[in-house]
Specification:
Helix 1 packs across helix 10, helix 5 (122-135) crosses helix 12 and helix 6 packs antiparallel against helix 8. The radius of gyration is 19 Å and the shape is globular. The strands form three sheets. The chain has a six-stranded parallel β-sheet with strand order 3-2-1-4-5-6, sandwiched between helices. It has a three-stranded antiparallel β-sheet with strand order 9-10-11. Helix content is 43%, strand content 17%. The protein has helices at residues 14-23, 38-45, 63-68, 92-109, 122-135, 149-158, 160-163, 199-210, 212-220, 228-245, 265-272, 300-325, and strands spanning 3-7, 29-33, 53-57, 73-76, 114-117, 144-146, 175-177, 184-186, 251-258, 276-284, 287-292. The chain has two domains: 3-147, 3-Layer(aba) Sandwich (Rossmann fold); 148-330, Alpha-Beta Complex (L-2-Hydroxyisocaproate Dehydrogenase, Chain A, domain 2), CATH 3.90.110. The structure holds nicotinamide-adenine-dinucleotide (NAD) and (2S)-2-hydroxybutanedioic acid (LMR). Nicotinamide-adenine-dinucleotide binds at residues 7-8, 10-14, 33-36, 77-82, 91, 95, 98, 102, 118-120, 122, 147, 150, 179, 224-227, 230.
């Protein structure tokens, strides 16, 4: 029996992600939670002839408690998206407290759940979640994930002409670091099968992966950021977690995790100087079984990208931790 819950289920990401989870034969129960519109979204999805039994909740009548109780996997796309001219960090002011409060609910009602955070800025919201879970005495680093799969999906897509793959998802490209601008580092030298990127195309390709989100924000022209590609990516990661918890082995996905407490994590933390980092994670029935250090043997160009990444990432992580340790005065 697998129960999944989506918090922020009525939004641009929440709706298509909930659709994909409702259609997933590996999900037995699906709970939707949002501050608005969950009854309508739930009624609509409930007509789909698939395995998952669906229920929807608003905050009233202990909605969060009912959505979370008995849940194995919680996916959080709650929070505001960017408009043109904004950075992901500009979302912190609103989204930090949304994530804090939802994770407090998880600590109380489903402390053993796998928690998948989509809400931006991921580089800060995941440290926020870790601090909330720590304060409640229920933090398990193996069960908390920042969803960075969209960066991987973009890298696979944007290199297609060099990977030669008809199906771009067959190109495996580690994208490490964080989830915003320069903190996103595609390691093309570690791609499998290997890529042959012309030297004069390399910088533009890296830039497109790092700033792919801006492309969508600009094209949507004030109507939000990536939702459909994010639902695809979020589902890909959630499905990997669900398969692993059901006992499937050998599943590896890049994701943003708290390195100490996961096998292999200390080595990367030492090399990068940061405790939260996206890298290849082997998933198992208990969550993140081990992390793989893909940083050894990277090219000089990639070393430079990694330097810029860790510099930015440090500040983002500290900001998230500080938000919980020294809460802003009201
Ligand atoms: P949206 O505004 O369309 O939807 C957000 C939903 O969250 C809304 O339905 C809203 O009612 C709900 N919500 C707000 N506060 C809530 C609360 N306290 N409890 C429950 N639900 C609440 O936004 P979107 O386009 O779906 O984006 C959501 C978030 O995902 C944004 O922060 C965005 O930046 C982020 N995002 C992350 C990635 C990634 O790669 N990790 C990719 C795309 C978007
Ligand atoms: C993305 O990468 O598309 C998301 O993080 C949304 C954004 O703000 O760009």
């Amino acid at each position: 029996m697998v129960k999944a819950a989506v918090l922020g289920a009525s939004g641009g990401i929440g709706q298509p992600l909930s659709l994909l989870l409702k259609a997933c034969p590996l999900v037995d129960e699906l709970a939707l939670y949002d501050v608005v519109n969950t009854p309508g979204v739930t009624a609509d999805l409930s007509h789909i002839s698939s395995v998952a039994k669906i229920s929807g909740y608003l905050p009233k009548d202990d909605g969060l408690k009912h959505a979370l109780t008995g849940t194995d996997v919680v996916i959080i796309p709650a929070g505001i998206p960017r408009k043109p001219g904004m950075t992901r960090d500009d979302l912190f002011k609103v989204n930090a407290s949304i994530v804090r409060d939802l994770v407090k609910g998880i600590a109380e009602f489903s402390p053993k759940a796998f928690v998948l955070i989509i809400s931006n800025p991921v580089n800060s919201t995941v440290p926020i979640a870790a601090e909330v879970l720590k304060a409640a005495g229920v933090f398990d680093p193996k069960r908390l994930f920042g969803v960075t799969t969209l960066d991987v999906v973009r890298a696979e897509t944007f290199v297609q002409e060099y990977s030669g793959q008809k199906d771009p998802s067959k190109a495996q490209i580690p994208v490490v670091g964080g989830h915003s601008g320069e903190t996103i580092v595609p390691l093309f030298s570690k791609a499998s099968p290997s890529l042959n990127i012309p030297a004069d195309k390399y910088d533009a390709l890296v830039n497109r992966v790092q700033f792919g989100g801006d492309e969508v924000v600009k094209a949507k022209d004030g109507a939000g950021s990536a939702t459909l590609s994010m639902a695809f990516a979020g589902y890909r990661f959630a499905e990997a977690v669900i398969k692993a918890l059901r006992g499937e082995t050998g599943i590896v996905e890049p994701t943003f995790v708290y390195l100490p407490g996961i096998a292999g994590g200390d080595e990367i933390a030492k090399a990068t100087g940061v405790e939260f980092f996206s890298t290849l994670v082997t998933l198992g029935a208990n969550g993140a079984e081990k992390v793989t250090n893909v940083l050894a043997g990277v090219t000089d160009q990639e070393k430079k990208l990694l330097e810029a990444c860790t510099k930015g990432l440090k500040g983002n992580i500290e900001k998230g931790i500080d938000f919980i340790k020294n809460p802003p005065q009201k």
